[in-house]
Amino acid sequence: MIPVVGLDGARVAVLGLGRSGLSAARALAAGGATPVCWDDNPAARATAEAEGFECAALTTPQQFSDIARLIVSPGIPHLYPHPNIVVAAALEAGIAVDNDIGLFFQSFATEDWNNFDIAPRVVAVTGSNGKSTTSALIHHVLEEVGRPCVLAGNIGRGVLDIDPPHDGEVVVLELSSYQTDLARSLTPDVAVFTNLSEDHLDRHGGMGGYFAAKRRLFSEGGPDRAIVGVDEAEGLFMAGQLAEGRADDRVIRISVSRKLLGPGWNIFARKGFLAEMRKGKQVASIDLRGIDGLPGVHNHQNACAAYAACRTLGLAPKVIEKAFHSFGGLPHRSQLVGEKEGVRFVNDSKATNVDAAAKALSAFDSIRWICGGLEKEGGLDALGKAAEAHVSKAYVIGREASAFAMKLPVEAAVCTTMAAAVAQAVSEARAGDVVLLAPAAASFDQYDNFEQRGDDFVAEVSRYL
Question: I want to staple 343 with a disulfide (CB 3.0 to 4.6 A). Which of 191, 264, 358, 429 is the partner?
């Protein structure tokens, strides 16, 4: 646990008592603060009270008279689509609003570091797609070379649940826009921005608010190194804002859409080859085509980002390349479930938005595509080229499967359930086909989360295998 520093003796409100909320309450108490907790769910309040935490509904400014700070769990909307009543009361009372990520960065460094030979470092990864794979890949490389490291945040352990860092340890954090949006302290040593596409727009009040939430990771604390995907206009804009000039190698630009030239530090992947360029010259290259755990252009982008992060930590290109080959990938992200009679089965349940699904489709040919669910804002038009080029037939699940199927540019069967979709895809698949789950939609119409949806796919496929 990372005890929270700077709030000893203070009363601190905690809104939301899921994993991060309870973790924050414990860390606050460990640092000498008194948590005052609240959750609309009585069962969650009962869990907190069983641990000895005080619970109280704070819905008016007057109730914040003795509160030093409000800690909001990432899953709770605070401003959009409408202001949260507790957050609004705190702001009206002039109370600082924060989250567990802010508490982590506030409390991570301690006097013990004076005895370390090498100061611990934090690598923080954000972006619309690929941040989990990028974070896990960085962590995997560090483990392979024997560097002390831990994976936390939106993947792995909660940020305040990890142990105080060891000499030279690297903490790799995956951070969503929900986590970067409210954090008052954001001071990673290395910050990574993978890409940006439409997602969570209701939570952030539109695309501008969504980008602003991601951008805070770079603007609030000023990382020593900023690794920025420049294949979208927002990333290109941010890289330009962060760099002092063309040769400023504190900003590392990455791309999978074009070669990056110039005097700066650039890393790009084209036709399956990763190239590192510094001062206009190529200094390293990796053939990504034979790395089973990183299939497709979207994973090549993840490889570029992870490679850049590992280079900033002092690792040699050949060392990184060797570690890439032993990376097995993550569940629900281009996960190879199995193969039978020449048909491969791939679980990409994490492809919950159109951009992620399009990238998953582009990674394979002759696809039997299982898709559908709770459609997000923006429609499905962006799937057009990838679907037409790579999909043989779609098999649509979800409560609104018929409406979803009508919007697709390829032949589609309305299956509704995962069991029916897998069964029909299996019956029609031929050697060389890939049965791919890439929903292009949220899971909440049928499942609690994308993991549960992916597990259902794996279970149905396993019956056939």
Answer: 429
**pTM of the entire predicted model:** 0.87
The CATH T-level fold of domain 104-325 is UDP-N-acetylmuramoyl-L-alanine:D-glutamate ligase (3.40.1190)
- What tokens were used for 27? 């860390």
Specify the DSSP element, H or E, that contains 125. strand 121-126
Q: How far is CA 386 from CA 143, 271, 351, 390, in A?
A: 35, 17, 14, 6
Lookup: tokens for 278: 């510094």
Calculate ∠ Cα 371-343-136, nearest 5°. Answer: 65
Q: Which runs of E-coded beta strand occur in 295-449?
A: 335-340, 343-347, 367-371, 391-397, 412-416, 434-437
Q: How confident is the model at residue 95 (pLDDT cuts 50, 70, 90)?
A: very high
Q: What is the mean pLDDT of residues 82-89?
A: 96
Q: Are 172 and 151 in contact (CB under 8 A)?
A: yes
C-alpha radius of gyration, the chain, whole number: 23
**Whether 147 contacts 170, CB under 8 Å:** yes
Q: What is the pLDDT of residues 199-242, one digit of tens each?
A: 888 999 999 999 999 999 999 888 999 999 999 999 999 999 99
Residue type, 79: L
Please give the span between the terminal C-alpha atoms of the chain, in angstroms, as a whole number: 42
422, containing H or E segment: helix 418-428
CA–CA separation, 431 and 106 (whole Å): 55
- In the chain, list all ranges with CATH 3.40.1190.10: 104-325
Contact 17, 47 (CB under 8 A): yes
**Residue of 456, 436, 463 whose CA lies nearest to 343:** 436
- CATH superfamily, region 335-464: Mur ligase, C-terminal domain (3.90.190.20)
Q: Residue 143 in 3-state DSSP?
A: helix
Instruction: Write the pLDDT tens digit of every residue in 239-298.
Output: 999 999 999 999 999 999 999 988 999 999 999 999 999 999 999 999 999 898 898 899
pLDDT single digits (tens) 353-362: 998 899 899 9
Task: Tell me phi and psi for residue 347, to 5 degrees.
Answer: -105, 110
Minimum mean pLDDT among 59-68, 304-313, 355-364, 408-417: which range?
Answer: 355-364
**Preceding amide of 74 cis, omega within 30:** no
DSSP 288: -
